[in-house]
Specification:
Helices cover 48% and strands 6% of the residues. It is α/β, with parallel strands linked by helices and 449 residues long. The strands form 2 sheets. Strands 2-1-3-4 form a 4-stranded parallel sheet. A 3-stranded parallel sheet has the order 6-5-7. The longest helix is centred in the middle third of the chain and has 20 residues, at 261-280. It is globular and about 70 Å long. 44% of the residues are buried.
Length: 449
Amino acid sequence: MSKASTGPREGSLEAPQRHPLEWKNPEFYDQDALFTELERVYDVCHGCRRCFSLCNAFPTLFDLVDESSTGEVDGVEKQRYWDVVDQCYLCDMCFMTKCPYVPPHPWNVDFPHLMLRAKAVKHEQGVTLTRDKILTSTDAVGKLASIPVVVEIVNKSNKNKYARKVLDKVLGVHPEAHLPEYHAATMSKRLKHHVALDTQFVEPTTDTRGRVALFGTCYGNYNEPQLGEDLVTVFEHNGIPVRLAEDMRCCGMPKLELGDLHAVEESMAHNIPQLAKLVDAGWDIVAPVPSCVLMFKQELPLLFPGDPWVAKVRDAIYDPFEYLALRHKAGKLITDFPHALGKVAYHVACHLRVQNIGLKTREVLSLIPATEVEAVERCSGHNGTYAVKREYYADSMKIASPVVKRVQKLAADYYSSDCPMAGHHIGHGMQDGSDHVHPLALLRRAYGL
């Protein structure tokens, strides 16, 4: 008999395990079955309460319980369960850092994926807001907003307080929330004619093949195309040929957070075969946004556990600094930095922490002489679309507050985050006109490129 079957216990010395999501099983969408599982897990959470400080989902749950007629989960009206679901943005931090009852513990608590199931049930019931459908349609919005002339109107409107009031009234986008800029010169346009270094002189290592296909991400493509240019410049300075993975769609993370798993499947069916062919041709895959890397590393393999192409891409995709750290481990990274960075306040994005690769960005930046990197490991509160919604904006700023205060206290020369959206959100909270500099841009500056 295994230790897990001897009875309930608190905590485990075993590594957390994720189970595949049986989202094509009809019972997955059965609301009564969902509510039964929600009640079971909510009761476990109520009896533990370690996660109260992570996000607003847990305080919402605990308030519902404490204010109920019984003071227990059985006193909470079932329809109020959705209040907790709506507050969860699938950062995964409760599963990875707090919960002592994750599998293989017999109580089998995977709170984020239970919330994902609930979001999928809600979406299947047809109650998804139009605003949320639009905000998560990143490719469609990006293509429209990046059209020349249109892009100027969009960017000016997003900074105009009267236009923002209209946007708030029509769509429910908070008038004070930071909205990203769009660019007519997208990443795909900027790198369209880029010719990768000659792959004849590629130097593979035990962990890397030494040449990279860049999955630009929809955010990188339309909102921060400089990310791609910085990555190409830094990687090729280190002798790593980079080519753009062409004709890519959104990784599917925004639709995952909405619970639209069929849209996730459509993105997967478009992206995965092409990425798998690149892997077969000898290319590693790198993406500059942590959520997108996590989507290919974790979420798609759990949604499509039997797909060999999904597994192939999972095993070949890397965070940029994870890749550079592996190259450094093999003695293949240039460490001659002519420029120091001074003090860097480095925010560690949740979807990077979930990848379980360690603080590779801090590790690489710390190689720069006269550079001190202070890590801030706490959620920024942005999480995709959560922070721009009228009803959650105040909560997002409350969640961000400890990070903002920590960055302000550090008084660093730069503050940075691997997640550009988190970085901007932190800057928004600082209210001093400062803005984050992405770690890739910092590394490029240190190289003097």
